Write the structure tokens for this entry.
Amino acid sequence: MVELGKKANDFCLASANKEQICLKDYSGKWLVLFFYVRDNTSG
């Protein structure tokens, strides 16, 4: 579980356009992360 106010670990993911997007690319900017747990799955 993520703690409120705690810094997130850096990570990178592929975008829909197959570009590498890293959390550190948004350092110093406002950013909202939202994850769909079951998006594009059969469950």
In short: The chain has a mean pLDDT of 84. The beta strands are 12-14, 20-22. The radius of gyration is 13 Å. DSSP finds no helices and two strands in the chain.
